[in-house]
Amino acid sequence: MGQVLAQLIPVAAAAALSTVPITAMIFILLSERRSATALPFLSGWVLGTAAGLTLATLAAQALPDRPRRLDTLIGTLEILTGSALVLFGLVSIVRHRRAPTSERPGWIEGIGSFGPLPALGIGLALNVRPKALLLFTAASLAITGAKLSVEESLIAIIVYTALATSTVVAPTLATVFLPDRMEPRLVVTRDWISAHGASMTAVVMILVGIVVVAAGINH
Fold first, then answer.
1. Any alpha helices (H) in 17-129, and if so which ranges?
2. For the whole model, what pTM was predicted?
3. Is the dihedral of CA 94, 99, 103, 107 positive or negative?
4. Domain ranges of the chain
5. 58 near 141, Cβ under 8 Å?
6. Distance from the first to the final alpha carbon of the chain
């Protein structure tokens, strides 16, 4: 169990540091309708993360069950997934250097005016981005490769979900209870992400990709 957690924690950290859900959360919390949209968005993000990893793990467990063949296949898939994460990060860095910009997608700018149901849907939908799917794949391969029991797999999924969503859960709950203290911090965080978020995310993806490739080589 310890080995799989050691593999899951970096992958979950990459998900936690993803700037898109964090930025969406900040705009919701700084809006006048945060009381109506914050918790639905949070619910969608958390439920989507748990469901995404659960489905990915079930798919991974459908791989051939011959021990040697399974180990080889999982190792190969981990190398491919890790390589894709590294490539994703490198492409993001190149794009950012060629066209550095702090502009955000229009839907993020207006997300604070959405109703509860659209906010829930966006929280769910953010889990089907290419980056999120790659991270689900890496995490599910780690769980499957460790040959955990059903109970242990469930614990691993819960741990991943808790870590991956912590950067949205913690600020949301803090703002609900301490709005006056949190609002200035949210503004500072929003501005910092606008300036440095893309580079940070790309570097984290590259590092996590290297970790996944190493796990695949050593599998």
1. 19-29, 34-60, 67-98, 106-109, 116-125
2. 0.89
3. negative
4. 2-217
5. no
6. 15
